[in-house]
Amino acid sequence: MTEKTSETEDSVAFDVEGGIAWVRFNRPAKRNSMSPTLNRRMMQVLDELEFRDDVCVLVLSGEGAAWSAGMDLKEYFRETEANGLGAVRRAQSEAYGWWRRLRWYRVPTIAMVNGWCFGGGYGPLFACDLAFAADEAQFALSEINWGILPGGGATKVVVELLSMRDAMYHALTGELIDGRKAAAWKLVNESVPLSGLKARVTEVAEVLLKKNPVALKATKDAIRRVAEMTYDNAEDYLVRAQEAANSFDNEGRKEGIRQFIDEKSYKPGLGAYDKAR
Ligand code: ACO
């Protein structure tokens, strides 16, 4: 788990170290806007990392001044539109495809929003289970500024995460909000000064690294799934999800009970059991 591997290939860069995959949008000269090439490459990277034993948490950030300036207006919109509806649909499918892959990723995911985050960037932002922003980061649904509605899920993202009034204001005005306001609006979990952002994200990732990985995956899926269920359906789903997790990882929770009740070596109310034993 301590082995370090790195790769930089065109539009996506990544390192794996200490159980954490640090994946970065890597088109800083284009403010990490998402071109079809970037979207294809990101799916390959997610594919390669998802089932590696040395990847237990994934962090998505951006090289340079941006997290992501949204879709590439030239390569994603203008050039694909020039090639007809088939090309448009293909580009959409490639973008939405990796966001969906990320929403249901095997390991917990954290958006580390280091700078600009616009429009289409809200797709991967929402896809990440947790999000931490720099105070200095700037967010906007800028679609309205160039004459479209916030598509590609962006409208759904703000309606899911923000109050109706804030979502409406954000989408209609296209105004920027900084990381602090994004945290106050619950678009992200927290914001901290950029100088401390990586340290804070590392701290949170290290908390997750200590948890039972089967329970993490079951929990993150449950949080997303039950959001659209009635109470009774959720109750039923959670019984079945726990039973499925038990059959996948029979020993983990028993060991958790044993270390608390018999060994008295930890308290579940205060931290995780030692999964190395
Ligand atoms: N699409 C295509 N190219 C982009 C994008 C984008 N979304 N964002 C930046 N670029 C390119 C610029 O065209 C420029 O290219 P060039 O060097 O070849 O001229 C380069 O990146 C640098 O951009 P600047 O505008 O010079 O950088 P600056 O730091 O001054 O401004 C900012 C940064 C505010 C992010 C600005 O680039 C911008 O407004 N980008 C567009 C943001 C946006 O509205 N995105 C679309 C959201 S809607 C959606 O995603 C569906």
Shape: globular
Unreliable segments of 5+ consecutive residues: none
On the 0-100 scale, what is the average pLDDT?
Answer: 95
Question: How many domains?
Answer: 2
Q: Could you say which structural class the secondary elements and strand pairing correspond to?
A: alpha/beta
Distance between the termini: 16 Å
Number of strands: 11
Q: Strand order, biggest sheet? A: 1-2-3-4-6-8-11
The bound ligands are: acetyl coenzyme *A
Tally of helical segments: 12
CATH superfamily membership of the largest domain: 2-enoyl-CoA Hydratase, Chain A, domain 1
Describe this structure in words.
The chain has 277 residues and is of the alpha/beta class. The protein has two domains: 12-209, 2-enoyl-CoA Hydratase, Chain A, domain 1, CATH 3.90.226.10; 213-263. It has twelve helices and eleven strands. The chain has helices at residues 36-50, 73-82, 85-103, 122-127, 143-146, 154-161, 164-173, 179-184, 194-209, 213-226, 231-248, 250-261, and strands spanning 5-9, 12-17, 20-25, 57-62, 66-68, 109-113, 116-118, 130-134, 138-140, 177-178, 190-192. The strands form two sheets. The protein has a seven-stranded mixed beta sheet with strand order 1-2-3-4-6-8-11, sandwiched between helices. It has a four-stranded mixed beta sheet with strand order 5-7-9-10. Strand 1 and strand 2 form a beta hairpin. Helix 6 packs antiparallel against helix 7 (164-173) and helix 11 (231-248) crosses helix 12 (250-261). Acetyl coenzyme *A is lined by residues 30-31, 33, 69-74, 116, 118-120, 142-143, 152.
